[in-house]
Amino acid sequence: TYPCTSLMSFSSLFSPDRYRQWRNWSGFWLLGLCNNFAYVVMLSAAQDILTKQESGNNPSLSTLATEFQDVNPGNGSRYDCNSVSTAAVLLADILPTLIIKMTAPLVIHKVPYGFRVLFCVTMAAMSFLVVSFSSTVWMSIIGVIFASTSAGFGELSFLSLTVFYSRDVLGAWGSGTGGAGVLGALLYAGLTQVGLSPQVTLLIMLTIPFTMLISYFFLLLPPPSFPQWKHEERDHGIETSEERQRLMVESQEEQETCSQGRNKFECGLMPFVCALGLVYFAEYFINQGLMELLYFRNIFLTHAEQYRWYQTSYQVGVFVSRSSLCCIKIRKLWALALLQVVNAVLLLLEVSYQFLPSAWLVFAIILYEGLLGGTAYVNTFYFISKETGDRQREFAMAAASVGDSMGIALAAVATFPVHRYFCSL
């Protein structure tokens, strides 16, 4: 019986169900990678974007677009600051996403998924083209806005799309978005490190949006009844009217009180959204407010190179933790939020007093920061998917994604006075 058992086990690896599962998992992994790639690259390139514009607007500056001098000629600060904080790029990178996430869940279900993907691909490709050929700050910011629009609309759509597949694709999506961080930051840092200009590097990355097209249209295997190119209404006539009337009555009952369990959906969703928002507020306060100021002189990396590899270390942590859902699940999201706040306070003190002896210690802290952020992200959506009813799940997955964007937007606003204060020293 042993050979027969082995043969059955071997054949099950190539069964239609396994084949479908493998293709869908791979498809969502690539969709996560492609969706977040442009967003990550714009943040990794934030310092180069601003340095390029400053040097272009002031011919007396001899700084290259790809690296800082040890002391910025245009700024007397000991922190070697850009006159504009990299949070300006972050704000342009997150505001369109936040607006989309706050408004689109109410109407996005009327747009077929095929059209959503084409829109995301177009916006991502435009972002690389506009930023690579820009000659002014405002043109670069427009390119960043295109990247943000693509990422925000895509995240909303693909998180909702996971509802039509088995729950394991949610882990694939999370791992793919983490992979986007590592691949995007690593490719940008590596290609510029070997001598390619930021412009050429961004043009090479135009291949990523087209990979999204292949992943969605040729790799995924959607259910037979999946509405690819047209919006399908449920039912018409009396049944639809009765259903809508029943839903209206239920909505009125749910508005009465949260303590009586009639508003469980909203009350259950808010802790997830708030905890995720706090994690991302602390996270991006570090990334775009403090990371540029964590500058160690007299080491083999220039200021710009330190910034790029900080971003890469962070993205490695995000990738590892977003891929961990199959191994560990953490329900206590507020603990992750508090630990991330501790990270932000510690690095703020380091910027103020410069007490850490080595840049490698900062790299380790930033890696840990990425681990916390990625863990919070995948566990938030996993438990929302698990604890939300079938009727509300698609909307809940889209609506909850506003938490991280709100945290990032608030962090971007908070970093401006911090940046101005330290750069004035």
From TrEMBL:
Taxonomic path? Eukaryota, Metazoa, Chordata, Craniata, Vertebrata
Q: Where in the cell is it found?
A: Endomembrane system; Lysosome membrane
Gene Ontology cellular-component terms listed: endomembrane system; lysosomal membrane
**From which source organism is this entry?**
Hippocampus comes (Tiger tail seahorse)
One biological process term in Gene Ontology: regulation of intracellular pH
Protein name, UniProt field: Battenin
Q: Which domain of life is it from?
A: Eukaryota
Q: Which Pfam families match?
A: CLN3 (PF02487)
* Family, per entry: Belongs to the battenin family.
Q: Which InterPro entries match?
A: Battenin_disease_Cln3, Battenin_disease_Cln3_subgr, MFS_trans_sf
Note the Gene3D superfamilies from the entry. Answer: MFS general substrate transporter like domains (1.20.1250.20)
Membrane topology label: Multi-pass membrane protein
Q: Which UniProt keywords apply?
A: Lysosome, Membrane, Transmembrane, Transmembrane helix, Transport
Looking at the UniProt entry, the stretches that span the membrane are 28-46, 83-101, 113-131, 137-158, 170-190, 202-221, 333-353, 359-383, 395-416
